[in-house]
Amino acid sequence: MGLLAANRQLSAATFGDEVDFLKQHTEVVVLSDKASKAEVAVAPAWQGRVMTSTAGGNAGASFGWINHDLIASGKLQPHINVFGGEDRFWIGPEGGQFALFFAKDAPFDLEHWFTPAPIDTMPYAVAQQTPSQADFRAQFSLTNFSGATFQVKVDRQVKLLSAKQAWRNLHLKPLAGINLVAYESINKISNIGATAWTKDSGLLSIWILGQFNPSPGTTIVAPIKSGPESELGPKLTSNYFGEIPSDRLVVKDNAIFFGGDGQYRSKIGINPKRSQGVLGSYDADHRVLSIVQFSQPKDVTDYVNSLWKMQAHPFAGDVANSYNDGPPSPGAKPLGPFYEMESSSPAAALVPGASLEHTHRTIHLSGSEADLDQVARAVLGVSLAEIQSAFAKH
Length: 394
Hints:
Elements: H1 3-11, H2 15-23, E1 29-32, E2 39-43, E3 49-54, H3 68-73, E4 88-92, E5 125-130, E6 133-143, E7 149-161, H4 163-170, E8 179-191, E9 205-212, E10 218-223, H5 229-232, E11 249-251, E12 255-259, E13 266-270, E14 278-283, E15 288-294, E16 320-324, E17 339-344, E18 355-366, H6 369-380, H7 384-388
Antiparallel strand pairs: 1-2, 2-3, 4-9, 5-6, 6-7, 7-8, 8-18, 9-17, 10-12, 10-14, 11-12, 13-16, 14-15, 15-18, 16-17
């Protein structure tokens, strides 16, 4: 970790600090709500991504992980530019015969893995803006591993939600002791080419990823539907980067617990039959409960598969993922460190002129453990005590 990033982590940069830093290097759109101190910082140059948010105004805690070293360097990297951000727009699949991150016939390894510019360095235009909402537009082409080309239009709307809307989305009555910030991105891709997108040549999906500050006390929770594998499939995919040790991953009937300390490179995925349309994390060190909700059409099971290999089932992918960063090999530098909560749309089989939309919502809540426990039980189906003791016996 560079000195600048280390100093900022030690000083626990506020939202105002982070916005001031970002404004030195790129345009920032700050969304705010007059009725509260909730704010969201968005960067148009980086695909209209939400860089960070707060429930406490300029002096409040900043929830998004931001890569200060990379941004301050002003230098672009060849494989990926990990600027950070709580809600960034990507398009899948990553790997497989329909991969967007590998050139035709390239080996599936880090050396040949490249993030396409339209979801890495390409600026998106600000189409419309209000104090609490910003809309972005972009058009581009993508070519997959099999050589198919897609003409794509993106419409992306980032909206700060009021506390009343947030509690309604949580299906809870407001708890006076909790401060929160809530926002959502509504993302639409359209086929603006002359040919239909079909399974034979590969399909695209909307993929939203959020990067957050890790801590030794952070545990990620993925609620799942209980039931036999013969009906619902495996409870999770956990071998993206090798098997995950039991002191970092606990699988129960109704939930997956996954370490979010940013110290061990690992990833989990939940298939659409198991997913409950929600992910969460609890940072016990700072008493912050984060909830991610996402749209998931009922009875749709075609999701792109992003595993780095030729696939027997390229449309048997995940709807929800979580990634914990760490060194890719012993002694190597991690990308962050950070942890991620991600969601994907179904595979987009679109005729010319047709569109697919995906909503991804993020809510950060801070307050007493008693109040946060009520939210965790209602939204994630587990208590704070269960979350914090998940790895105690391993």
